[in-house]
Design brief:
Radius of gyration: 30 Å
CATH topology of the largest domain: Nucleotidyltransferase, domain 5
Helix content: 40-55%
CATH architecture of the largest domain: 2-Layer Sandwich
Structural class: alpha/beta
CATH superfamily of the largest domain: Ribonuclease H-like superfamily/Ribonuclease H
Order of helices and strands: HHHHHHHEEEHEHEHH
């Protein structure tokens, strides 16, 4: 009725739309219904649409469908589109919905358009993987006071930036300038999850000497420990002949515990490298490897100060 009153005062469709928060076209439709049906034409007629198609049962089925990929339901396309979801849901629920309704349904269940995580399946049997992980977990929980367990891994730092997701305006694709000729540096780290401390070394090469250098740094960082247990992956530099000879020279103070193949989530230092890449290397704008490594070192120093402060507060 307010639309009719505003029009009666001489306001234009555009002015009425701005006042009502709708388009001029909607104002025009409302006024035409009023001219044809009077006040009855202004009544809410959404109740005549019938039962709600995207109800709770429909949303539950949609949520179950999205747990699988499109090929699981016989489609050749590897990724979901709203049209494929509409057709799949029609077959499962016998309800035909519009593209707009599907969009609302996806929003209602909190679905998102995201980037899948690439993974490689471990070739070991499930029993063998579980047994190895349980051995490491038991060791972690039953360490003598003069022994320590650290999580070890290496990280690559490339002058050619890693490309990642970023917010930008609609229709505007941000550009990340790459130097063309890539340069690399490598970090090796050992993370102490109890004291929340990290021992780090860096090198221009990712080889056995980088790992041996880290082992020496760890021995210096924990001089009172009889044994230092390193949990690590199966990368070649951890098992090379040079590494084995170096470990013999450490008189058994460093003991390696290899994770099952392709189980990065079990290595607690991995999240530290992800934080580093998220905050420094992804989409970076540095033109020299020197500037990039300076930013890497600055972030790691700031990160370590932050986690130590948080650890001290919890301990207090």
């Amino acid at each position: 009725m307010l639309t009719v009153l505003l029009r009666d005062k001489g306001l234009s469709y555009q002015e009425i739309g701005e006042a009502q928060g709708c388009s001029p076209g909607t104002v025009c439709k409302v006024l035409k219904r009023y001219q044809q049906w009077g006040e009855a034409g202004l009544e809410d007629r959404r109740s005549e649409n019938g039962h709600l198609k995207a109800d709770e049962d429909y949303l539950a089925v949609l949520c179950a469908v999205l747990k699988h990929t499109a090929p699981h339901y016989g489609w050749s396309r590897p990724t979901w589109t709203r049209e494929l979801l509409i057709e799949t849901m029609r077959k499962k629920t016998r309800r035909q919905v519009s593209r707009a309704t599907m969009s609302r349904a996806l929003k209602a269940i909190g679905a998102r358009l995201g980037r899948p995580k690439p993974v490689v399946r471990c070739p070991w049997s499930k029993h063998k993987v579980t047994r190895r992980l349980n051995q490491i977990h038991w060791l972690r929980d039953h360490l003598p006071s003069n022994e320590i367990l650290l999580y070890e891994d290496e990280a690559d730092v490339h002058l050619n930036p890693k490309i990642g997701l970023d917010w930008m305006n609609s229709g505007d694709q941000r550009q990340v300038v790459t130097p063309g000729q890539n340069k690399k540096r490598y970090l090796a780290g050992a993370w102490d999850p109890v004291a929340r401390e990290m021992t780090l070394v860096e090198s221009e090469r990712k080889n056995s000497f980088l790992f041996i250098l880290l082992c020496q740094k760890v021995l210096e960082a924990y001089p009172k420990m009889k044994k230092i247990h390193l949990v690590l992956d199966n990368y070649g530099i951890h098992k090379s002949k040079i590494t084995k000879r170096a470990l013999e020279g450490f008189e058994g103070r460093i003991v390696l515990h290899f994770l099952p193949p392709y189980c990065p989530d079990e290595n607690l230092i991995e999240i530290r490298w992800k934080i580093l890449h998220d905050n420094v290397t992804r989409n970076h704008q540095y033109k020299t490897i020197r500037g990039l490594m300076g930013a890497v070192r600055k972030h790691l120093r700031k990160f370590m100060r932050k986690v130590k402060c948080a650890h001290a507060k919890v301990a207090a």
